[in-house]
Every structure is written in structure tokens, then in C-alpha cells.
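Technical annex B. To support the medicinal chemistry partners, we prepared a structural model of the target in complex with histidyl-adenosine monophosphate, based solely on the information shown next.
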Amino acid sequence: MLQAPRGTKDIYSPEIIKWQHIENKFKECAELYGYSEIRTPIFEDVNIFKRAVGETTDIVQKEMYVFKDKKDRTFALRPENTASIVRSYIQNKLVDNQYSTLPGGITRLFYIGPMFRYERPQSGRSRQFHQLGVELIGLDEPQADIEMISLIKDFFCSIKVYYQLELSSVGCELCRDKYRDELINYATKGKDSLCELCSERLKKNPLRILDCKVNGCKDFLNSSPEIIDYLCDKCRYHLDVVKSYVEKRKINFKINPRLVRGLDYYTRTVFEFKSDRLGSQDALAAGGRYNNLIEQFKGEPTPSVGFAAGIERLVLASQINEEIQSRISIYISHIDEECFEYVCDLSEELRQSCIKKGLALRVVQEIRKEPLKISRILSVASKYKFHFVIFIGTKEMKDNKVSVKNLSSGEQINLDRAIWIDKLIEIIV
Ligand code: HAM
């Protein structure tokens, strides 16, 4: 049998209802905070990710889907979206875009879409996965980091996701240089405990050893120096302001001095929102500040901060109920063949009213001409979880009536054709 590729899956009803609900709530929340949507291509020049995410990261070394096009150009399916957004921000001069950028140059963007990483699939980890996220471009103040955390908190509350926030800082170039030397000192002493890859990392990008998943390395690095003890005054102040905000808002958080991100572009604030309902893949959302990335892409130096959350993981962790979120659905059918046209007209009238009045209903007409018996219509309607059934026989048609049955209460009413839609809406809305 033909199968979807390993690590990917089809998403359809009823699960998709939860996805749609989560995406809608995220959109509402991001717009509430003044963010506007951006959609970037799902593939980009591979160098965009190499340069942003970092040549020595697992994402770039092991996880990217890289391919050549017919003109021998090398592209990658995007493993994340921050790099693409930075590319787009510079290319499209979004700093001057009046819809996403306020005077003074703060650009607020949000996105939803698929990302691709060649990882070992397991619950909460797939090869095509979906992220929603935001980027706030153009402010160095901790208030921007605070806005990020506040937005995630409000969004998670709206979809009933419970979390613990882990917060840290990876400092700036100043503090990181000092820390790097200390780490190299420490790691060189215990070089034999490091895996082969980490010995390589130690030469090329020593901070990456902190991201190693090999047990021997992890144990050895458990007592390594912590960046948080090496922060310069400005970075320390930045972290303290963010920390005092989460304390004031009583957000469930802890400082995790060993929080390691799998991407190289971070400076200062890094954070992860974790769930205890997810097993080993417990990061619901993650992000931080990236003050040097735009400059690295040859843009004006522009401090920025952002986050992304994995929708698959939000679906697993969210306590919202799928049924409650689904639209009111109505099944319209004829019970005598000569009523078919009458039923087509009713469906058309009802759908036009929904469009005019902005009503979100699901109006499904039985479009096979062969009439069904009432008992059959009712059993189909209950199997497919319709809320209301409208059925029309010769009697209804002659009397200019519309029969409506409420499937949850069992109540049945006969409405006058002239006012049936207003009455129906009164009942269901
Ligand atoms: P990330 O930590 O690589 O950060 O990914 C963010 C979130 O995406 C994770 O916390 C997780 O929920 C989800 N995720 C990552 N990989 C997978 C996977 N294989 N399967 C399912 N879900 C996954 C970033 O991507 C950064 N771009 C975040 C950011 C935005 N930083 C600043 N701005």
C-alpha cells in the first residue's frame, strides 16, 4: 500500500478541528498584540540556514532536507522560519512596511506553517512538523522579551495548555568569549570523556558541546561552568528585568542555567515552555533573542526576539475539547423525489444568509436525487454528528413549510417558509 513518508502524517477530521482551533486562537492572540502575518517559501537557498542556524548545529549537519534543482542550485526545505523571516525582512525592506512596523522601527510578524527536519520520529517529533511563531524585530529592551513571554502565556491560556517556563541567558559576545575560554579549559581537562563529535566541536564551536545528547558527554558536562555566572552587567540586568516580570505575573518558571538551544543565533534571553504531558519531547515552545542575526545577513544591526511552538505538541498537550469547537452542522434532505429542487433552493437560501450574516454553520445537502426514508436520514445524521436535520416531503412542500429536527433534544418543529431562516437562526445561535 502507498504510504505517507516516515515522519509525516495526514491530518483530518476530527483531529483537524483541534488544529484549526489552536491556529485560530494563535492568530487572534498575535493580532491582539499587533503582529501581522508573513508567509515565506518552504524552501530557501541552503546557505540561509547554514549561516543563521550555524554550520556546526545538528540541524544543519544532520537534519536538513537538501536538494538541487534543475539548474544545479542547492536548496533546503526550511528546518525553521526565523532565518527566512530575517532574509525577507531585509529583502523586502519590511522596516518601512506600515502594516507590520510602527514608527521607530519595531516590526511585528507572525507565521504558521510546516517545517522539515530529518530526525528519528517519535511521539511529538516528526520530520514534517508545524510551527506557529512570532518575531519582534527592532528592539533591544527587555520589554520586547517580556512581550514574547506574555503573548505565549495568553495564547496557552486560551487553548488550555499548562506549562513550566525555563528561562536563561546566553549573554552577548563579551560574556560569551570569557565563558568560551572557561568551557574549553574544563572540557580539555576531561577530553577523554567527550564523544568524537564533541572533540571536533571543541575545536570549531565549543559551546555546541553543551547540546550533545550522548550520555557520557552529558554526564561530564553536568558540572561544567555555567554561562549565567559569566554574564556582563548589561546582560545580567536584561535577564533580571525579564525575570522580575515573570515573577510579578506569577508565571510558573525556573531559571535553567544549562538551557541549551539547538540554534547558534541566540544572544541574551533564551527560553523554553515545557509540558509534563509530553514525555521526552517536552518543549512546547522555545525561542529567545537574536541581536546579531540581521547584521550577519548584511542588514542594519537590528536587535530582535522571537519564538516558535510545535503545533503537534500543542495538540497533544491542549485540554480543549474537539466536539465543543466544531461548527453547528445541518443536514438537509428530501424524502420524496419531487422535493429535490425545493431542497436545493432551501440550501441555497440558508448558505446565502450565512454569508450575509457572517454565520459559521455547516450546511450539507443530500445531493443524490434518489430520496431517503426519514429513518435513514436520521441515522446518517446521528452517525455523522449533525446537530440539526431538515427534511422535506411533499406535505411540507405543499404547505410551504420546513421541518427541522434538533438531534440533541429530539424536538421537531415546522417553520413557515417565509420566515424559516430567521426562526432557525434564533434556535441555533
Ligand atoms: P526550535 O526550538 O528548534 O526553535 O523549535 C521550536 C519548537 O518547534 C520546539 O519547541 C518544538 O515544539 C517544535 N519542534 C521542533 N522540532 C520538532 C520536530 N521534529 N517535531 C515536532 N515539533 C518540533 C526554532 O525553531 C526557532 N526558530 C524559534 C525562534 C523563533 N527563535 C527565535 N525566533
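Notes passed to the chemistry partners:
The mean pLDDT is 94.
The pocket of histidyl-adenosine monophosphate is lined by residues 80-82, 117, 119, 124-126, 129, 131, 133, 135, 262-263, 283-288, 290, 306-310, 312-313 (CB under 6 Å).
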